[in-house]
Amino acid sequence: MAASGGTQHVHATERWRHGHIFLGARHEENERRTRLVIALCAVMMIGEIVAGWFFGSMALIADGWHMSTHAGALGISGLAYWYARRHARDPRFAFGTGKLGDLAGFTSAVILGLVAILIAGESATRLFAPIAIAYREAIPIAVLGLAVNLASAWLLGAGDSGRHTREAAIAHHHGHGHTSSAHHHDNNFRSAYTHVLADAGTSLLAIIGLSCGLVFGWAWLDPTMGIIGALVIANWSYTLIRDTAGILLDVKPDHAMEEAIRGRLEIDGDRVTDLHLWRVGPGHCGAIVAIVSERPQPPAHYKARLAALEGLSHVTIEVHPCDALCVSAALPSNAPPRR
User: Fold this and answer.
1) Architecture of the domain whose range is 21-248
2) In degrees rounded to 5, what are phi and psi of residue 277?
3) Is residue 308's pLDDT more than 60?
4) Are 70 and 42 a contacting pair, CB within 8 Å?
5) How far apart are CA 203 and CA 200, in angstroms?
6) How many CB atoms within 10 Å of residue 325?
7) Which architecture characterizes domain 255-330 according to CATH?
């Protein structure tokens, strides 16, 4: 009978345990699309290197190795998706594996920044020490690279272009604004998309520079376009590093969410004295809240007030009884009048 009672007790407590699966809503779809792009880049990379060796073209071989850097960065994204999904229920991860995508995004952004530095350095060298360019051979290679990257961008963005638009807006507006969207973007997917766009942009600028060099003899324009492309890539890299680093360091993801939490809790004489808000995965935030109250209620009462907030997935609340004088002392000097 004792064993039976113990089993019933375990089953009874199961419903009080927190789940920690904080993967993005489109995790599997994004993983599948990323794998397709990795395969496309890998095939293109191998094809260029083999063709360059067979035809004796250093331009093809160089572009193939350049493609390998992007395939490697995309490989980091694919590995992060796989690992996060495989270990989503691993109890060693205190708040799940939702942040692995942000870690992969940060790593890819650093690689993107290094690529920008290398492109800028090589372009500056060629600007002041020009070398002969085989325009008629280089232009088809750049066009082929652009086609592959446009196809990759389509694979990553097909059917979900609106989300990419929101991600770009979030990236340039520091994550402030609408509560339901500021913490939903998948930085792992965003990093893969940024790599593809960066490569497409450099291919397009290369085509412009090479074409003008072929038609007008402007040899200086090719390295100039390289420097411009490097600056654009560096800006994208900085933005992605800033956003992902903030998440990895548990910077508050959404000011509007914080205000919404306070607005729902600070009623009937209750006051929030401590609030920790952080992102645990795409579309998921965690919160730890300390409340003082003249008439304290069970934590479940306060959690119910927050139940309608979208994206607030893991909430811990501690409640402390406190008389009116104590509650008033807990208020900041610029706090609004008590209701």
Assistant:
1) Up-down Bundle (1.20)
2) -130, 130
3) yes
4) no
5) 5
6) 9
7) 2-Layer Sandwich (3.30)
